Amino acid sequence: MKSKIVITAIGKICTRCERDLPLAEYYAEKTGTLGLRAECKSCWSTRISNQYKANKERVHARNKAWRAANPERQAAIRRRSRLRRMYGISIEDYGAMLADQGGKCAGCGGTSSGDRRYDVFAVDHDHQTGEIRGLLCAACNLALGLLNDSPERLMALVAYLLQHMDVLAEGAIGASS
């Protein structure tokens, strides 16, 4: 037997707890009356939580099977979620940043991310402020991380490398004479 949906001046009455609640207290549902679920958010959450607890193994098995059957979609969902959670940006924001950089690493200008697992550039951000600086290949991102984002350490390392390149060049010139 279907519960009767009652619309009131305030909102509507939940079919489960029978409270008269504002429409904002109901989740959207395309097929529902007024495009809303019949039960309020609180009752729906409680019911879904109880269903999950009662069928935990079945839910886990179904989710695992879906992930195995849809690895590309799962990877996209995971990536979108990670970008939003860690950096507060969308896939579209990421794409726009990459386009602004010409599809290249902001550090070295390389066109490959250098990441064998995923062909994506790392989101480089200031660890103090959280502000995003750009997209880096795996090597540039790792180098910055190992140098603790220190310009002084990076410049000292560049000076060291240049000094030794001069020594090698002088040795090569002397050896060929």
Automatic annotation (TrEMBL):
SUPFAM superfamilies found in the cross-reference section: His-Me finger endonucleases
The organism's taxonomic lineage, starting at the top: Bacteria, Bacillati, Actinomycetota, Actinomycetes, Streptosporangiales
Transmembrane segment boundaries: none
Taxonomy, superkingdom: Bacteria
Organism: Sphaerisporangium siamense
InterPro entries the record matches: Endonuclease_7 (IPR004211), Endonuclease_7_sf (IPR038563), His-Me_finger_sf (IPR044925)
Protein name in UniProt: Recombination endonuclease VII
